[in-house]
Design a protein that fits this description.
Shape of chain A: globular
Strand content of chain A: over 45%
Structural class of chain B: mainly beta
Radius of gyration of chain A: 13 Å
Number of strands of chain A: 11
Number of helices of chain A: 0
Shape of chain B: globular
Largest interface: A-B, 23 and 22 residues
Radius of gyration of chain B: 14 Å
Distance between the termini of chain A: 36 Å
Order of helices and strands of chain B: EEEEEEEEEEE
Oligomer: heterodimer
Distance between the termini of chain B: 41 Å
Structural class of chain A: mainly beta
Helix content of chain B: under 10%
Largest sheet of chain B: 6 strands, mixed
Strand content of chain B: 35-45%
Largest sheet of chain A: 7 strands, mixed
Order of helices and strands of chain A: EEEEEEEEEEE
Number of strands of chain B: 11
């Protein structure tokens, strides 16, 4: 099992560009999440999904959109990137007893 | 609003010394508390949950509802304990699970 994988690992964008981060899990988990990690801020929940076809806003959803068309995939989109979105992005999925994280995507917006 | 506070950004101890990583929370209800750890070049992973009442890698954490704290302790630190530690909180299980509120994190360094 690969667990939770994220694509890409690194990306540099210019302000105003768009991109999609892909998260995939092979554990058949219903719940999936996107967090961002910033120094001194801990991890903050952006969006989450409690099942295929469903999404919901987390703590810091502005500037991001998500989709969960397939149970195993959870996509995070930035339509018009801003420097404030420079961060490390973590995807996670959960059973009812544990949260499994991906390796992270380091995004820099210039 | 729920909040988790880890007052120490950095904590340094020598090998064999006791270590305590502090975590305080605010939540109106019965929260679930967790400690997550991120070792160098590894993924963030669960260290322990308060409801499990278990000791993992020699670490324990007791939920003190009166002081709203969930401090992580280990009597004898090892060099391999050096990592970033996050305290986290969620509402009671079910769909709240995974919607964690994280503290700011504490970087623990254990010197030889």
């Amino acid at each position: 099992n690969a667990g939770v994988t994220q694509t890409p690992k690194f990306r540099v964008l210019k302000t105003g560009q768009s991109m999609t981060l892909l998260c995939a899990q092979d554990m058949n988990h219903e719940y999936m999440y996107w967090y961002r990690q910033d120094p001194g801020m801990g991890l903050r929940l952006i969006h989450y999904s409690v099942g295929e076809g469903t999404t919901a806003k987390g703590e810091v959803p502005d500037g991001y959109n998500v989709s969960r068309l397939k149970k195993q995939n959870f996509l995070l989109g930035l339509e018009s990137a801003a420097p404030s979105q420079t961060s490390v992005y973590f995807c996670a999925s959960s059973s009812t007893t544990n949260l499994y994280f991906g390796p992270g995507t380091r995004l820099t917006v210039l | 609003a729920q909040r988790v506070t880890q007052p120490e950004k950095l904590l340094s101890v020598f090998k064999g010394a006791p270590v305590e990583l502090k975590c305080n929370y605010s939540y109106s209800g019965s929260p679930e508390l967790f400690w997550y750890v991120q070792y160098s070049r590894q993924r963030l992973q669960l260290l322990l949950r308060h409801i499990s009442r278990e000791s993992i890698k020699g670490f324990t954490a007791d939920l003190n509802k009166g002081e709203t704290s969930f401090h992580l302790k280990k009597p004898f630190a090892q060099e391999e304990d050096s990592a970033m530690y996050y305290c986290a909180l969620s509402g009671p299980g079910g769909t709240s699970y995974g919607k964690l509120t994280f503290g700011q994190g504490t970087i623990l360094t254990v010197h030889p």
